[in-house]
Amino acid sequence: MSRMTHAYAAPDLSALAKNLKRELEARADLPGHVELLNILTRAVGFRNYQHFKASHAAEERLANPPVVEAEPAADFRRVELTARCFAGTDCLVRWPGKLNQQQLALWVLWSFLPAGEELPEKAVNAVLMRHNGFGDHVLIRRELVNMGLLTRTPDCRVYRRMEKRPPPEARALIRLVTSARTAV
Q: Does domain 76-183 have CATH number 1.10.10?
């Protein structure tokens, strides 16, 4: 285990010396290593050495907050190409030919399913048929399950939307398609 170094400062050296003297005189034997650490940290206002370490660790975290990486920008060309499959509506009028566009389109259809609810197969089919213009809601349902956006019981009677954060392209496409729906 590596040693951590901690800065130790006493605002009043005289008060520190008096406190150490008082603590040491009250003892019959010499304190051990940990006891001495506790005595030193109590002399400068901490409850014990653990409190001292935790306080300095918190100061360090506040002084140097973690770096949050910026989210990658959406590929708007991919969003635009996939949006053509919706033809300006909230209905997928044709199944995209490319896998990456299919996956984006599935995120949009996923967004139409109610969150946190168990749905019978008929309810899922009703939502998918309402937003499907090419007539194969079964393909969409199966692909949503394959992609992990929808789960189902082994007997395929009950479905549940999986709560996940869509990737940037999917969020952009969802906004685009849902804004087209409200504009109509």
A: yes
